[in-house]
Amino acid sequence: MRSVYCQHHRERKLLPVMIYFNNGSLGKEYICAVCSGVRTFNTGKIVSIVPECGYGFISGVKENIFFHFSNLAYDIRLHKGMAVSYEIEFLEDRKFNYQATNIRPLNGGKNGY
Q1: Helix H or strand E encompassing 7
Q2: I need a surface site. Which of 44, 53, 56, 73 has the fewest CB within 10 A?
Q3: What is the CB neighbour count within 10 angstroms for residue 99?
Q4: pLDDT by 10s per residue, the chain, length 113
Q5: Is 53 exposed, middle or buried (0-12, 13-18, 19+ CB in 10 A)?
Q6: Measured between alpha carbons, how far is residue 99 from residues 2, 23, 111 in Å?
Q7: Rounded to 5 degrees, what are φ and ψ at 107?
Q8: How far apart, in whole angstroms, are the C-alpha atoms of residue 67 and residue 17?
Q9: For residues 81 and 23, what is the distance between their CA atoms, to the nearest angstrom?
């Protein structure tokens, strides 16, 4: 099984492992073993991309999840149908209530799987 890390601590190169504790309405919820921060992770497929505007949508549990190209984990080439994993970030005072961040291709992003 792949380890899940707290992104806040990963940026500081501490890499504490997140511990699975619940299936939430938006995906699997994990809690950081160090800061007790709760994060929600999920997988889905790219359903639409608007490259000229720098955003797109990923299939979610209940609805499509908005993402911006700046939220990619690293420089990857996206295509419709590509399977990805992502983290949910909740937003305040925005058009969308949440967005996908830390977006990564599953299985190297080959052939949309």
Answers
A1: helix 7-10
A2: 53
A3: 22
A4: 456 666 666 666 666 677 777 787 777 787 777 777 777 788 899 999 999 999 999 998 778 899 999 988 888 888 999 999 888 887 776 677 788 888 889 876 554 44
A5: exposed
A6: 23, 18, 24
A7: 55, 35
A8: 25
A9: 24
User: Residues for the chain: how many in total?
Assistant: 113
Token pair belonging to 109: 């992003």
Q: Which two tokens stand for residue 2?
A: 């792949």
Q: How far apart are CA 55 and CA 33, in angstroms?
A: 32
E strands, the chain, are 18-23, 28-32, 38-50, 55-58, 65-68, 83-90, 98-105
pTM of the model: 0.70
Provide Rg for the chain, Cα atoms. Answer: 14
Euclidean distance between CA atoms 103 and 4, whole angstroms: 13
Residue 109: HSE in the Cβ half-sphere, 13 Å Cα cutoff: 14
